Amino acid sequence: MEHFALTNTWLIPLLPAIAFVLIGLFFKRWAAISAFIAVLASAVSFILSTFAAFAVLNSGISVDAPFIQRVTWAEIAGLHFEMGALIDPLSVMMLFVVSLVSLLVQIYSIGYMQGNKSFGRFFAYLSLFSASMLGLNIAINFVQMYIFWELVGLCSYLLIGFYYQRIAAREAAKKAFITTRIGDFGLLIGILLLQTVFGTVDFLELKQILPLYIASYGTSTLTVIGILLFIGPIGKSGQFPLHVWLPDAMEGPAPVSALIHAATMVVAGVYLVARAYFLFASVPALLELIAWVGAFTAFFGASIALSQREIKRILAYSTISQLGYMMLALGVGSLTASLFHLFTHAFFKSLLFLCAGAVMHAMSEEADIFKMGGLRKKIPLVFAAMTVGVLAISGIPPFAGFFSKDEILSAALSVSTPMYLLATLTAFMTAFYMSRLLFVVFFGEETKAKLHNISYFMQVPLVILAILSFGSGLWGYICDFGYWIRFGAPLEEHMNLSIAILSTLLPLLAFALTWNIYVRKRWSADYIANKLGILYTVSFHKYYIDEFYALLCRIFIDGIGKIMYFIDIYIIDGIVNAVSGLVLFLSILLGKLQTGQTQRYAAAFFCGVVILLLCGILYFNTISGIVAGGGAL
Amino acid sequence: MDFPFISTILLTPILAILLLFFIPPTSKKAIKLVAAIAMLISFLLTIYVYINYDSSAGGMQFVEKIPWISDLGVSYAVGIDGISLPMLFLTDIIGLASVFSSWNINKRPKEFFILLLLLIAGVTGTFIALDLFIFLLFYELVVIPIYIMVIVWGSTKRVSKEYAGMKLTIYLLIGSAFMLVGIVALYLQAFPPGMRTFDIATLSSAHLYGTLSIQFQIIVFFLMLLGFGTLISMFPFHTWSPDGYAGAPTAVSMIHAGVLKKIGGYGLIRLGLLILPAGAKFWAPLIIILGLANVIYAAYVAIVQKDLKYVVGYSSVSHMGYVLLGFAALNTISLSGAVANMVAHGIMSALFFAMIGYVYEKTHMRSVDQLHGLAHQMPKIATGFMLAGMSSVGLPGLIGFIPEYTIFVGLFAQYPILAIIAVSGIVFTAIYILRVLQKVLFGPRDSSFDRYDDAKGAELVPLFLLGTILILFGLFPQLLMAPINSGISPLGPFLERLSAAPSLLFTLGGI
């Protein structure tokens, strides 16, 4: 079975793709069959992924010696496109995480989407997403990765706009597509440059060529390529300044937010950098850029999350912030820490989103946390699960986030103190906004609203994810995640006691603060907000970046567009119409001659004859003149 | 002699026209059926030829040749190679789709379908002709039905249909007049009297004998560029195209944007590059600049359009910019991309126009401001819009991606900086496509649209046909790239030699 899974990894993305086709073409009217097909495909994919992971562990496949299968997809003289499967510890970890979260989210969705008239369409899209994301994970070259990268983008677009009758949803979907497209523009140019400079986009071949290339040509071209490639992840993984689409993406249904905009698609950017780490790591300046983008985004996202009111938006900014952590880890050279955080984050963040979905489901789609309250007694299971999630993301030992975040912090400290301080401050803020959310929603005054029932389909995934959010970090720590992932030489950081203690105490301090503000009401939140003045306003309005972009768009897109259109109609077409007008004018003028009066024609005829005669005489005179003069003739 | 497949493909619509003359105008069903069956036969034969074309052997296949006017060196010669085969396929699939998208034509259907079949036959003829004379004959034949169809069955919005039809016709005629001068000069110059011929393959070898001086090639290529450039809506000769499409009935928009425009790109390669290589090389930098203007400028104009047909019209101008760029980069990769992109754009724009046609037919609205939330009432049409739109955006898995990517790779090797500007087109395309689709398809349900049905019955044929190809060629691009490669890759050494030839004053070297 292990061998079968290893040699047939192409089945892993193919199965959900088949599910998509079956549901989309035949079964979307029947909710139960749709869900069954989708879940079955995901379950088999998950089983295959797990076996593939075991196979990788047992057969000594490492990042340096991956297992590769490839086929030619299209070929013309001088250019060929390959598709295939690159199986190494990195990709099987991704396969495992993606297929597992996909499966759980689909099960949850059976309950969440119950009664929706587009139930079948939802599962079709989810299946297409799983297929694309799993295809991305096993990409053997940049083009294959770009192809699936675009496809996950499409699924994200379709699912954000799933409730297409809502204007907000449709606008959010458009914004997501176009914003990430700007990132893809950079990525595509980077890939084209790779193709032009190296003649290949294959990960393995590039990895072999690169050292020689650097030795003979230096790193300047590579720096350009790296920056361009990195623009893709900035867009996809919601890094500053292309993060604006991710909070709006929360217009999609909660399971979509959990799966695509927390656990899987948004980490594609991190995965791309990790996959092409041999390239980024060969230019120190690139790593520094990535680290600063990551560190700033982490801080930036958290600073906005502090003041938001909508439950999923808080989580979205939190996702931006956590993705920043992962980028930071990559930038400071710790692939292990980054992927470890990716691994744990996938579980606790999808858990948080699914809990948020459950809360909203129970509250009839209410999103404002200040309109909730005291829910802990009414939906205790969700409360328990959410608490686990909050503890995990805040980095309280022994929950998952503690171990992965700790590795990032110690890796950051080993490179740059300012980055470490920024990351630690972010950790404090994270604990603050997450506990604020938890306390406001589940404590305080009980809401009067009548709550909807939460079905078992929704409860079971919550429990499983809560267990994973609790245990995955500890497991990774004990089993030496870095060794298990085997990124060549062991790179894993060891626990630094002072960092660990500080990063535990700060969240606890944050909890104490929020407890006093939001539960005991010792200090008024409004008063603090007023005291903070401009800081609070800027955070609440998300630094006015959306407004700024809207302005840019109005000037540089619509404005220039209008000017161009003006040129088109009045200048280019103006000339065209003027020429045709001139022709018309001349024809009218000449038409005047055609009077139909014979006398006039005769007069004209006579004039013509005279002119011809004159010309003739002149001509003959000239010629005879030349002849008489003994000319050249 | 083998069965004359190519001639049958060409003659079936013409036979159907003859048949239509004998059908009374009142039996509308019969008229439509005859047209549909004729196009179906042509389409199936085209598929047969497509499958049986030997890509590994390449070259001209299915050749038929009958001497016609031997004194002038004219013969009826048809055949296909890797460049014309995809174009033939494009013509017949869009031809078939356009017949079905005109299923609800009730105003003078007999005349309409006669002209439509004539148009299709004319376009088919230009792609399969191996003789320049035959090519010209069909090329001029095409303009007549278009003019009549626009002014009789067209629609008046921003500009009147008479203006649109006249503009389109005059543009194309002036363009072809320049081209005609060039071709006559070429005919006279290439070979001495007695050996003169219109055979395209023979003419393509003339430059090897040195009869065509570089100066001559430069001048004649310029004349051809005026003709073919206008046809492919090269900036600044593009304004006929959005107005023309907006005025034209659906079927004409589909064929015009889908196929006829591509004669420009096809002609530039087949006649321009192959017969007058030094001329092509000389003018390539200019074409690059104008092509770039097409891509960016037209995309910008498309962004501010309100009428669906204008959006797609300017979008097609923008996409043709990629074809021009692929052509002018003058390497096998970019040329393959250019040919593939013509096919890709043909299919997607035909689908777009078919869907717009349905919406207009039902609601009599085409403005983005009036239409909204149509996905509620017309989910199938919405699917068609999304498929066409996503292809246009260049989404992998649909037909648009590989051609675009191939052009970019080919262009990058030659002009990296300009290539980057060209690539930025993918962002602009996403902006105008999504803005329009979002607005028209999604949003709250408007009950005033409830009385309009979704596409059904025969109306679904274009969606099914074109949609299938969009996905099929997207998932299996080799189906498209294999024949194209067999047509373009033999040009490798030829293009290699050409790279040393002089080019326009500013060389753009390395930009």
TrEMBL record, chain A:
- Organism equals Pectinatus cerevisiiphilus
Q: Which domain of life is it from?
A: Bacteria
GO CC annotation: endomembrane system; membrane
Transmembrane regions: 6-27, 34-57, 90-110, 122-140, 146-164, 185-204, 210-235, 256-277, 289-307, 314-333, 339-360, 381-400, 420-444, 456-478, 498-519, 540-557, 563-589, 601-620
Q: InterPro entries attached here?
A: NADHpl_OxRdtase_5_subgr (IPR018393), ND/Mrp_TM (IPR001750), NU5C-like (IPR003945), Proton_antipo_N (IPR001516)
Describe the family membership recorded for this protein in Swiss-Prot or TrEMBL. Belongs to the CPA3 antiporters (TC 2.A.63) subunit A family.
Q: Where is the NADH-Ubiquinone oxidoreductase (complex I) chain 5 N-terminal domain?
A: 73-123
Keyword check for Membrane: yes
User: How the protein sits in the membrane?
Assistant: Multi-pass membrane protein
User: What subcellular compartments does it reside in?
Assistant: Endomembrane system; Membrane
One MF annotation (Gene Ontology) recorded for this entry: NADH dehydrogenase activity
Q: Which residues are in the NADH:quinone oxidoreductase/Mrp antiporter transmembrane domain?
A: 140-430
Q: In its UniProt entry, what is this protein called?
A: NADH-quinone oxidoreductase subunit L
Q: Name one GO biological process term.
A: ATP synthesis coupled electron transport
**Keywords, comma-separated and alphabetical:** Membrane, Transmembrane, Transmembrane helix
UniProtKB/TrEMBL annotation, chain B:
Q: Where does it live in the cell?
A: Endomembrane system; Membrane
Specify the taxonomic lineage: Bacteria, Bacillati, Bacillota, Negativicutes, Selenomonadales
Q: Membrane topology for this entry?
A: Multi-pass membrane protein
Instruction: Give the highest taxon in the source lineage.
Output: Bacteria
The UniProt family comment states: Belongs to the complex I subunit 4 family.
**Transmembrane domains' residue ranges:** 6-23, 30-53, 73-100, 112-130, 136-156, 168-188, 208-232, 286-304, 311-330, 342-360, 381-403, 415-437, 458-476
Q: What is this protein called?
A: NADH-quinone oxidoreductase subunit M
User: Which InterPro entries does its entry note?
Assistant: NADH_Q_OxRdtase_chainM/4 (IPR010227), NADH_UbQ_OxRdtase (IPR003918), ND/Mrp_TM (IPR001750)
